[in-house]
Amino acid sequence: MIGAAFALLGYSVAVSGRLEQLDWSNLLVLALLFLVCESVPTLLNVKQAAVSVSFSAALAAVVLVGPEGAALVGMTAVFSVRPGLPLVKRLFNGAQFAVCGYVAGKIYEWLGGGVGLPTIAGFDDLIVPFAGAAAVFVPLNFILIALVLVLTGQADQVPLRGVAQFMVSYLGYATFGLLIAGLWATVSSISAVLVLLPLFVARWAFGQYNAQQRSYDATIAALCQAVETKDYYTRGHCTRVSLASGMIAHEIGMGSERLRAIRYAGMLHDVGKLGVPTKVLQKDGPLTEEEFAAIQLHPMRGLEIVRGIDFLDEAFAGIMHHHERQDGKGYPMGLAGDEIPEFARIIAVADAFDSMTSDRSYRGARPVEVAMAELRKGAGTQFDPVMVVAFIKAVDRDGWEPPRKVITPPAGAAETTTKDHDDPTMPIQVVSER
Ligand SMILES: [Fe+2]
Predict the structure, then answer these.
(1) Which of 198-202, 277-281, 368-372 reaches the highest mean pLDDT?
(2) Ligand 1 geometric centre to CA of 434 (Å)
(3) Distance from the alpha carbon of residue 299 to the mean position of ligand 1, in angstroms
(4) Closest CA relative to residue 140, chosen from 194, 186, 88, 98
(5) CA 52 vs CA 46, 76, 176, 277: distances in Å
(6) How many Å lie between the centroid of ligand 1 and the Cα of residue 347?
């Protein structure tokens, strides 16, 4: 790639002689602009995906300074301020932007686009050639990066998921290049500031939003961890209930905001166990009515613990009512059928399923098929049949990975509970004190 970029520049100097006709002052400003854009990529949620608005600057260069100029502008990516980026990656970045810029420039000229400051009258004629240039620049950039990842044995890093969305957003960024070029004739380099500043602000805000989401996730994970340290056998239970709840919610067509909320609710459904005395959770044999009442209080306790976290929103209802039953025999409120909030009906299925397919101190994990049969049996009495059907469908399609076998903890090394309140096959025995 680096060789190809140098060959292109060598050709431009020695054979075509076009470098001499370049508008160097504009090129310098564009190169500086490109460099600034390249240097401030916002790290997104997607692993290692750094998105920057440098595409706009590169495509403005195609219009203003032609293929050779766009290649030189792209090459400045070598000098971008990205601490710790190795030299070979810098050279590759510069080279691939140079090649993309050059090829896009050639397409632009081939489609009849004029190089230089656009006039107001001639602006219409730029649109089609510019669209052609952008349509080549964006995929070529993606292909070259994917190629180098494959050749260096990092094929798994190629961001194939959501590639269409990625292309469309980049084509969108590319369009701003035309705006910059169009405004250049009137306000010269200030046009770049006018166009790119709002973009930078929007990108910055988006980055902040992602950072906030990550801190939410960390908060929830920490709470989860706190619950699971109470019981050796329930490690990973919150995460799996969250996953299964997400599968059901997705299957019944929930929107992305609610999907996020149900995942949080799944993570936190048993957070109220923190408020139940450990000796009750760990008691061997039947519980007294008082002890059982303490267990039945855990959904309320959960709500008390997380009530102050306002982003949980609809998740509260899921936490509060995840032990209600369709026939109204559940707790804490004894709601029945559709009175039970949707989130709670989902979590109830996910919760019981994970409990059955996990090891407990008093029994081994049951196979997925057996747990499914148990869910079907309880549909209509304990569980919402719609959610049971949705879950079975989702598992049939996507599969389910039950937790690994729990190696019996050495005595005294970890805490375990003897009865699991989520296990529908082994109801808790309660003895009357009277
Ligand atoms: Fe629970």
Answers:
(1) 368-372
(2) 27
(3) 7
(4) 98
(5) 14, 15, 13, 52
(6) 9
CA of 349 to the centre of ligand 1 (A): 12
Q: Which tens digits make up the pLDDT trace of 60-83? A: 889 888 888 888 888 888 887 777
- pLDDT tens column, 159-175: 676 777 777 877 887 88
Q: Calculate how far, in angstroms, residue 270's C-alpha sits from the geometric centre of ligand 1.
A: 5
Residue 289 CB contacts under 8 Å (≥ 6 apart), including other chains: 430, 431, 432, 433
- Kindly report the pTM of this predicted structure: 0.64
CA angle 354, 360, 363 (to 5 degrees): 110
Pick from 4-8, 39-43, 70-74, 381-385: least confident = 39-43
CA of 422 to the centre of ligand 1 (A): 6
Instruction: List 379's β-bridge partners, or say none.
Output: 383
Cα 396 to ligand 1 centroid, rounded to whole Å: 26
Q: Cα–Cα–Cα angle for 106, 112, 114, nearest 5°?
A: 85
CA of 286 to the centre of ligand 1 (A): 18
User: 273 alpha carbon to ligand 1 midpoint, in Å?
Assistant: 8
- Residue 46's pLDDT band, with cuts at 50, 70 and 90, is very low
- Please report, to the nearest 10 degrees, the dihedral formed by the alpha carbons of residues 241, 244, 249, 253 taken in order: 170
